[in-house]
Structures are given as C-alpha cells and as structure tokens.
Amino acid sequence: MDLNLDNQLYTVATLKALGAETSGLTFHSVFLQNKVTSRTARTGAEFLVVELSDATGSLTVNCFGNTALFTFFKSSKDGQVVQVQGQTDYYQERLSPRLTHVNALNEQQVAAEDWLSKLVPSSTESPEGLWDELLSHIQSIEHPELQATAQRVMDDIGEAFRQTPGAISMHHSYRHGLMEHTVHMARAAKALFPVYPEVHAALALTGIILHDIGKTVEYTGERVTKKSQAGLLQGHVVLGYRMVRKAALQSGLEEGLLERLEHIILSHQGELEWGAAVMAATPEAVFVSLVDNLDAKMGMVQNALRTTTEGFSPFLPGLKSAVLTTAVNDGQ
Fold first, then answer.
1. Which of 69, 178, 202, 256 could lock 143 by a disulfide, CB 3.0 to 4.6 Å apart?
2. CATH code at 91?
3. Percent of the chain residues topping a pLDDT of 70
4. Which domain holds residue 140?
5. Residue 7 maps to a domain
6. Residue 181 falls within a domain, yes or no?
7. CA 203, 148, 227, 15 torsion: positive or negative?
8. SS3 call for 331
C-alpha cells in the first residue's frame, strides 16, 4: 500500500468520534506504533494486541495468527511509523478497528512529511512560554541557597526537562508534560501559600520545581516513552533525591533545610503503594504531595477535555471514572 496524501487520513480522534453507526467504514491512517503485546486466546492460539497512536490519542487493534498483519507486527519494532488501512468496528460500544493492510514508512518518508510532529503528542501550551515561566518561578524563590539549588539542577538537565513527559500513561503523558505539570503546580502553590502560612514557601516551591526531576533519567525514547535501565532499577524518586542532594551540597544549603528538601522528594508520591519512599511528615512535604496529586488528577481531566468532543471520556484509571466533557451552559 503506497502513501497517498490526496486521500483523507483519519486521526485517532476522528475515528473515535464516528460512532457505532459507521461500523464497516474503510479508513486510511498514519500512526505511531507504541507497543505490541502477545496474548493467548481461550483456544490456546496466540494473538497480538497492538497499540497505535497519533497526537490526538491512541487505540488498540487485535491481530490473529496466520495473517500477514500478525507476521508484520510480530517482527516489528516499537516506535516505527506505520500506514494502515482498515475498517471501523466496535466491541461493547468501544472502537475496535480491524486492519486490512499495514506497512512501515522509512525514515525518508517520515522526515519528508514531518510525521513525528503530527504523531507524537505534545503539550498544548507553548514550551518556550512554560520554560520562561519556570525560570521566573526559580528566580522568585526567596532563599539564596534554595534558589541556587533549583537553578543548578536546571542548568544541568534543562533540555531534558523541557522535553520529558510527566508520565508514561497516567497524567501529562506527552512531550513537555513534565514542564507543564511543574509550572501548573507552581501556579497553584503560589495561590495557596497565603492560606497556609505554616508552610515554608521557599522550601515548598523549591520542592515543587525539583520533585519530579528524576523522570528526566527514568524515562527514555524520543517517539515512544519507556523506562530506562536506571528508571527500572531505581525509579525517579531515588534518582531525583540523588540529583537534589548533589546540587544542594554544591550550593551550600545548610543541613536542616537539605534534610527537609530531600524529604519532599522522597515523599511527594503521597502513598507508599504509589511509589513514595516515606510518608510526608513535614508541612511542606504534605503540601507538595497534595498539590502534586491535585495537578496530576486535573491534568487527566484537562487531557480528557482536549481529546473528547462530547459526552463522557473513556474510563480513566487514575480517576477510577470517566469524565463528563460536555460544557456547562449555566442554565441558559
């Protein structure tokens, strides 16, 4: 199957918006191959669950044995750009398309049409604007050694921080997502500081800016985000703790504040089962963990609103619910 840009190409969002009444519609699309998982059917036969995506969302298709599609995906590599033809189909009211043809685009074809910019999801906010705001938040830290610690870390890992997603799948899971998440947390924290004067504002703000920096090492992959070896062996909490401690010692942060800053990094996940090394036990650590949880969940809501046109979003595991995306009409 040859790529023909004169034909309409369906995005994931377009396919999901069609509705079950369009079952059987033939479509052409260009997707990023995220992941191929081998499963076993009740009959004992192997089949593949293939996750495909573009900048508007993701979907999965099943490929069964003894077909050219099964052979293609069985030997393929995640991260490749594929052109597909298929027909819309639905299972339990969820889109479950059936592919009929697939081929991989070579790097020349990918570059010629700049497919990665169309397929890899990114923050809807300006990365330049987010970066400038992040630096302004660092400059606003009213404690010389804490400010120096945050600035030193960003001087070391700034480019990675600009590009890294906030997560692999749960929240802010797109390019620049970590930066967007961090800036949103800083905005929320500054609005809340007057309500909670017992929180050391400079310490909490530094903790917010640095709480997830370990993800710049934990995650890898320009097209498909996966965990690196260090991410699998140590995780972003431990990686971030080490990065913060090194920068703080180089910045001359006194021992008491260093211990409390380290505690924010170690406890920011909120619950031990969520990956926290310890439970939050200082005003600043409790504050940061709750602001982190707030923005993570609201990030899921924001993404649902961006990717679902009307009605309810798909079920979101992080919220344990779907989200109603229909706008409020104020009774008018």
1. 202
2. 2.40.50.140
3. 96
4. 127-307
5. no
6. yes
7. positive
8. coil
| 248 and 297 co-located in one domain | yes
Summarize the confidence of residues 79-104 as an average pLDDT: 88
In this prediction, what percent of the chain has a pLDDT beyond 90?
Answer: 56
pLDDT of residue 270: 85
Q: Which two tokens stand for residue 53?
A: 């995506």
Provide the b/e sequence for 74-97 (b: ≥16 CB within 10 Å): eebeeebbbbbebebeeeeeebeb
Three-state DSSP state, 111: helix
Whole-model pTM? 0.83
In sequence order, what DSSP letters do the residues of 267-299 get, joined into one string?
HTTSSGGGT-SS---SHHHHHHHHHHHHHHHHH
Total tally of structural domains belonging to the chain: 2
Mean pLDDT of the residues in the chain: 90
Last residue of a domain, one of 79, 97, 119: 119
- Token digits for 254? 């006194």
Q: Which residue has the higher pLDDT, 323 or 267?
A: 267
Q: Region 286-296: what's the mean pLDDT?
A: 96
